[in-house]
Amino acid sequence: MLNLKNSVHKTFAVLEYFTIQKPEWGVTELAKEIGTSKSTIFRFLAQMHSIGILDKDSQTEKYRLGLKLFELGNRVELRTAFVEKTHPALISVAQQIAETVHVAVLKNYQVFYIDKVESPQGLRISTHIGSYKPAHCTALGKILLAFLPKAKQKITLDYLFEQNNLAGFTPNTITNRMELEAELEKIQQQRYAIDREEFEVGLICVAIPVFNQNNEVVASLSAAGPANRFEEEEEKNYVAILQTGGLTIQNNIGNFKLL
Question: In this predicted structure, what is the pLDDT of residue 70?
Answer without folding.
Answer: 65
